[in-house]
């Protein structure tokens, strides 16, 4: 079965993105495919490479990145939600003349159309958070 | 192939950005010509109240944004009866004439008909 996940909550302030990650691992282990993980609302904070996690706590963003590297999972971050929460890639930082960019490797900024596409292309779209 | 897709909006219009970002997602989906529906339940029913004065808190006004839904051909708009009743809201206080009131049983039927649910 083809799954996509929608993540709407920030890591470390809510359990939701950790649960989403565990769900992603479980469905891949069961032999299903994961078409896309779409990060929207406060979920965009999962894609910051500036999150600094205590050593004895789970580093959820790096787990997402690992998932992308090992399973070629498409990690898409809503660009409108990301920009207003201070998550930018180099292109957007240049466009808006901001002093830095912080989108983690493995994540891509794109539009809400990618959430729609995930809903249409997947057998199941599972929402986590909010 | 068209899919039956239901958005469920469960949060108040102000106090968090959830309702606004849900509406953005609905309007994006509307461009894809699917069999699209929108259900307001829980605190989401507050979005439908007339006479919202959000300029007082420097926010965009939901009462001005929701009437554009039919222009985007989002015509299947529902509101959950028990959520209205629990908050003391009557049907004649709602700002969309086209909104259909569904009780919990009818909502469960609506949910079961969908290919995808997007919950906000």
Write structural notes for this entry.
- The complex is a heterodimer of chains A (130) and B (120).
- Chain A is built from five helices and five strands.
- With 130 residues, chain A is α/β, with parallel strands linked by helices.
- Helices cover 35% and strands 21% of the residues of chain A.
- In chain A, helix 1 (16-29) runs parallel beside helix 2 (60-71).
- Chain A has a five-stranded parallel sheet with strand order 4-3-2-1-5, sandwiched between helices.
- The model of chain B has no long low-confidence stretch (mean pLDDT 95).
- The radius of gyration of chain B is 14 Å and the shape is globular.
- By secondary structure, chain B is α/β, with parallel strands linked by helices.
- Chain B is 27% helix and 20% strand.
- Chain B has a five-stranded parallel sheet with strand order 4-3-2-1-5.
- In chain B, 35% of the residues are buried.
- Chain A binds chain B through residues 6, 8, 40-41, 80-81, 111-113, 115-116, 119-120, 122, 124-125, 127, 130, and chain B through 3, 5, 11, 17-18, 21, 24-25, 28-29, 31-32, 34, 116-120.
């Amino acid at each position: 079965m083809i799954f996509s996940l929608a993540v709407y909550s920030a890591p470390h302030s809510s359990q939701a993105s950790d649960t989403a990650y565990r769900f992603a691992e479980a469905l891949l282990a069961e032999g299903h495919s994961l078409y896309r993980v779409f990060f929207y609302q406060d979920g965009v904070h999962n894609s910051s490479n500036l999150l600094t996690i205590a050593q004895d706590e789970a580093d959820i963003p790096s787990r997402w990145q690992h998932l992308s590297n090992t399973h070629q999972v498409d990690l898409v971050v809503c660009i409108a939600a990301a920009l207003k929460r201070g998550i930018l890639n180099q292109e957007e930082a240049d466009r808006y003349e901001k002093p830095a960019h912080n989108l983690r490797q493995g994540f891509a900024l794109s539009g809400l159309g990618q959430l729609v596409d995930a809903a249409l292309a997947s057998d199941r779209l599972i929402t986590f958070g909010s | 192939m068209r899919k039956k897709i239901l958005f469920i909006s469960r949060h108040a219009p102000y106090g968090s950005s959830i309702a606004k970002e849900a509406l953005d997602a609905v309007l994006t989906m509307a461009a894809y010509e699917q069999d699209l529906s929108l259900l307001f339940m829980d605190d989401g029913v507050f979005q439908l109240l007339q006479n919202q004065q959000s300029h007082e808190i420097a926010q965009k006004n939901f009462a001005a944004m929701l009437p554009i839904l039919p222009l985007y051909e989002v015509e299947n708009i529902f509101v959950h009866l028990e959520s209205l009743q629990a908050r003391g809201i009557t049907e004649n206080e709602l700002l969309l004439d086209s909104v259909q009131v569904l009780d919990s049983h009818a909502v469960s039927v609506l949910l079961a008909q969908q290919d995808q649910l997007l919950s906000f």
